[in-house]
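User: Run a structure prediction on this.
Assistant: Running it now.
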Amino acid sequence: MDSKEKILIVPSYIASLKHYEKLVPYLEERGFEIEYFLFGKSSMSEYCEEKGLKHHILINDQMFQDVGLKNIPIFTPIKKRGELSKKLREFFNNYKPNLIISAFAYNQSRMQALFSIAKEQKIRVIVLQWALGPKENVTKHRFLRQIFKPKDYPFLFKNGAYRIHRWIVKLITKILDTLSIGPGYNYPNFTAEKYLLITEGDKEARLLMGYPEEKLKVVGSLDVEFVRNLYQEIEASPTKKESLFQKYDLNSQKKNILLISTTFHLEATTKFTDNAGQILYFENVIQTIQKIFPKEKATIIFKIHPREQDIYSEKYQPYGVKVFGRESSVEELVILSDLYLAHPLTSVNFSASGVYKDSIFFNFSPYDFLDETGRNFGIKEIAKTETELENKLQQYKEGKLAKQYQDIFPKGAIENILSSIFDLKEKI
């Protein structure tokens, strides 16, 4: 194999970038050169620079600095789509990867544009699913139920208006492209050659959304496979395990309880509060944990989201909580912990179920759709109140906590993914 053959990886945001990074050694081992493609400067570009990862940045957030009327509804996004098409064509005219591995496009016009231009330039694209999300009907239910409470859910109300606006834009761009006006504005769906999915349940959901069955293949979870391999490596070496306890300044003689943050304060579909509300939300969880496991008996490890700033350490210091950010390995923290606590919707759940960690899932937010998404992880029970969480913690303390999830992930994900890539590579 020519060592200069390139695979371009297109993550959707930093958690997906870290996910795909786990696959890179296996691809490099087989002679591929790996580079990343980012649509703009962000936490992903910062991470690439920190780690020395080869990457390309397409700055699309500065395209209209010279346009005076840059915020006109309908007009501006159509102009941006045209400019994006031009820039992507320029990029791929100068850079020709043999294969693109991408996150799901969902409704992101940027990703759909990349798919369309890559297809136009005869560059093959594989979509590798890295996370589970709500099924389409759950998403619709979420907006129908919550969008009519704009005071309680300001972001969801804005998002609903945006969806209507996007539909109008899509209709107009279809007309423009049909008339061959402009550089290409509309980005059709399902232009990837193959969609590599995590579970059979997700395949069923994609079929309901209209994805062609011949393009769908279930391969399992890279995260699950990775953490299982890492777990075996660490457990086989007591010295290595103890060095990890030292690395994170954890006491192996105490209970270590890992609590995973969900960003309810950032501009995303889960936002419903501000920084102060976010701190208070998880402070209540910490206080509930310490009713059963005082800080003298157990250490709470709080892993914040890669997109988050540390707004917690000072507030949580009296509880003896150890806060870790991007500098830490969440897989290592999962392996070192005795008990794992998280919301139903986080990709870290792959790691917890991958090593069969004792786990408790909770959701005190106003978002019921998080619970529905949790079913995709095989989660069976979710604590909805602090009292329910306290009861589950007591059950764990007494050794009576039932397994909170099912093992639903196919084995051999890494080999399944590699064989799918090589099968496609043979056609190039």
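Residues 1 and 30 are 8 Å apart (CA to CA).
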